[in-house]
Amino acid sequence: MADEPLVLGIETSCDETGIGIVRGHTLLANTIASSMDEHARFGGVVPEVASRAHLEAMTPTVEAALAAGGLKFSDIDAIAVTAGPGLAGALLVGVAAAKSYALGLGVPLYGVNHLAAHVAVDQLEHGPLPKPCVALLVSGGHSSLLLVPDVAQDVISLGSTVDDAAGEAFDKVARVLGLPFPGGPHIDRAAREGSGTAIAFPRGKIDDGTLDFSFSGLKTAVARWIEARERAGESIHVADVAASFQEAVVDVLTRKALQACRKYDVADLLIGGGVAANSRLRALAQERCDAAGVRLRVPRPGLCTDNGAMVAALGSNLVTAGVTPSSLEIPADSSLPITTVHV
C-alpha cells in the first residue's frame, strides 16, 4: 500500500447513496445518487423507500465514482463504510456492500461513525485538522458539539440535542410555512427576503449552563405564531417568519459553539453536517469567530451534506494511523455513539 492510501468510502445512512474516493487528503471522486424526490411527497424520509433506493443505486454509483476518478477496482487499497448512526435498513445496505467489495478485492474494511466522518471531510478542503478542535455538527438528525483531539481515535461529546435537531426543526417549520421538503434550503432562500429581527422567537437552552441544544420549543412557537395570525385573518409574511426562525437557530448554535471553544481553550472551530450549508449560519459563525479570535473551518456546501467522500476521508485517517481494520462481521448500528469512531 502506498504512503497515501486510496480509500473508497460508502455512505448510506439516510436517503443518499454516496461513494467517495480519496488518496490521503486528496478528493478524487464524490458521486451521489439521491432518493430525495421519492420522499418529498411524504414530507420526510421513508426508511423502506430509502433502503430500496440504496440497493438499486449501489453498483452504478460505485462504477460512476471509479470512472470519475479514472480508476479501477484493483487500485483500491481499503474500503470504508458508514456503520452508524442512521436508518437501520439503509445502513445495512451499505455495510453489506462494503463487506462484499472488501472481500472480493482482498482489501481491509473500516466501519466508521457517520458523525466523525462529517468532521474528517473538512481535511479534503482545508488540510489536516488542528489538534484539538471543537466541532459543531448540525444535520437533520443531529445537533452535537464535540471536542476532537484526534478524529481517528478520540472524539469527545460535549453536548447534543435533547429533542429536535436543527435540521428537523427546519423541515417542520418549512411544512407549516407551505415550503417544500427538505426545508433547509427553502427556508434559507426565503429568509434572504425577510428580516431576522421581525419576530422575537425563543432561544432554547441559550443560557442554561450546558452545551446541549433544544429546538422543539422553537418549532412549536413558530407554529403557534402562524396559527394565531391565521385565526385573526392576518396575512403572514413568509420571508420574515423564515428569517426570524433561522436567526433563532443559528444564534443558539453559534453561541454554544463559542462557549465550548472558550470552556476548553480551543482556538479552532469546525462546522459540519447538512445545516452547515446554511448561508446565515456560515456568515454569523464567521462574524462571531472573528470577534472571538477563533479560527473557523467550514467545508464547501457540497461536502456538508451526506456523501461518500467524508467516509473515505475518515477511512484514510484510520489507515494512516495504523488502526486495526474492522471484522467482516461488523454490524450496522443505528444508534452508534459519537465516541465510537471505528467499529
Automatic annotation (TrEMBL):
Its cofactor is Fe(2+). One of its GO terms (biological process) is tRNA threonylcarbamoyladenosine modification. It comes from the Bacteria. It is an enzyme of class 2 (transferase). The keyword Iron applies. GO terms for cellular component: cytoplasm. Keywords: Acyltransferase, Cytoplasm, Iron, Metal-binding, Transferase, tRNA processing. InterPro entries: ATPase_NBD (IPR043129), Gcp-like_dom (IPR000905), KAE1/TsaD (IPR017861), Peptidase_M22_CS (IPR017860), TsaD (IPR022450). Its EC number is 2.3.1.234. Its main location: cytoplasm. It is found in: Cytoplasm. It catalyses: L-threonylcarbamoyladenylate + adenosine(37) in tRNA = N(6)-L-threonylcarbamoyladenosine(37) in tRNA + AMP + H(+). Binds 1 Fe(2+) ion per subunit. One of its GO terms (molecular function) is tRNA N(6)-L-threonylcarbamoyladenine synthase activity. Fe cation binds at H114, H118, D306. Substrate binds at L137, V138, S139, G140, G141, D171, G184, D188, N278. Pfam families: TsaD. Residues 27-312 form the Gcp-like domain. Belongs to the KAE1 / TsaD family. Required for the formation of a threonylcarbamoyl group on adenosine at position 37 (t(6)A37) in tRNAs that read codons beginning with adenine. Is involved in the transfer of the threonylcarbamoyl moiety of threonylcarbamoyl-AMP (TC-AMP) to the N6 group of A37, together with TsaE and TsaB. TsaD likely plays a direct catalytic role in this reaction. This is tRNA N6-adenosine threonylcarbamoyltransferase. The gene is tsaD.
